[in-house]
Structures are given as C-alpha cells and as structure tokens.
Amino acid sequence: MNLVRLLYVSKLKKNKNAVKDLMDILTEAITYNSPHEIYGALYFGNGYFVQCLEGERDKLEHLFYKKIIRDPRHEQCEVIYLEPIKSRLFANWHMKYAAFNKEVMHFFKDHHLEAFNPYLLTNHTISPFINLLAKQKDGISTLRLK
Hints:
Residues 3-96 form the BLUF domain. By secondary structure, the protein is an alpha+beta fold. Helices cover 37% and strands 27% of the residues.
C-alpha cells in the first residue's frame, strides 16, 4: 500500500455564514473519506484552513486536485507537505475537526511570530504542527453549538 500524508492550506472565501460552510465541508469530508479509507484532521482559524490527510497517494491526489482545489469555498489552495508514511496519526478519524485553540495560537506565535497563518509553516515547523494537530480533541460537537 502506498500511504502518504498530505498537508494543504487554503483560505475560506468571504461569505455570510462561515460556520455553515465549515460544517458542510466536514460533513462532505466524512461522507467521502470513509469509503475511500482517507483519514485526517481539519483546522480552521483566522479565515484559513489547514488540513492533514492520510491515505493512498492516488486517492489523496484525486481528492485534492479534483475536489478540494475546485471547491468554490476555498481559494489559494496549496499543498505544503506530501510524504510517504508507514503508519497513520489520524487513524481514528475520517475527518477530525480540531477546534481553534490557544495551544495552536501559541505554536504560531512561538515559531512564526504571528497569529495563526498556515502559509507560514516551514520545513522545520510542519512536522511539529502535524503532531500538535493529531493531539487535539475532535471539536465537531463544539462547532455544532455555535
């Protein structure tokens, strides 16, 4: 099996209901990812998305280039990390939503001297950020309460 981990960043296009768009994206991700054996986590803050996906390379590339990059809710989609893996960090989630939190904010201030902006991730900070993302609790229930 040709397993890889892909990390991409994008911006949410300005809209009237960001929470609804985020819920729709998460629902669509879970529905699509489960039968395709794709796992991962999505983090959203300051108008930015960062999503880590794990699965077979051809399935992830199809998902990114045929679906995500064409999704009208995203703009400036960019893959910043794609590496082969032997085991999954996100094996328990077809799509986990890591809620906006102080731990991630501190990570960005400590490493990039700025609030959350995933375009600032570098070769030195991508792996620690992915590990931090893997440790976050699933926040879908908190999103539904908004």
